[in-house]
Amino acid sequence: MAVPKRKVSKARKRKRRTHWKLFAPNLVECPQCHAPKIPHRVCKECGYYKGREVVSS
């Protein structure tokens, strides 16, 4: 079984873990209220998804 020869330093470990999230989520315009929203999600402002009201406000 493979065993590390030396302890991995904190700096080396933290460098490896810094890039786990590369991009922020994209935003699109809601067709109903024109507010920015995450694609394929219900709009937080008006509650519409795919032209239908899913969450009543």
From TrEMBL:
One of its GO terms (cellular component) is large ribosomal subunit. InterPro entries: Ribosomal_bL32 (IPR002677), Ribosomal_bL32_bact (IPR044957), Ribosomal_zn-bd (IPR011332). Keywords: Ribonucleoprotein, Ribosomal protein. It holds the Pfam family Ribosomal_L32p. GO terms for molecular function: structural constituent of ribosome. GO terms for biological process: translation. NCBIfam families: rpmF_bact. Belongs to the bacterial ribosomal protein bL32 family. This is Large ribosomal subunit protein bL32. The gene is rpmF.
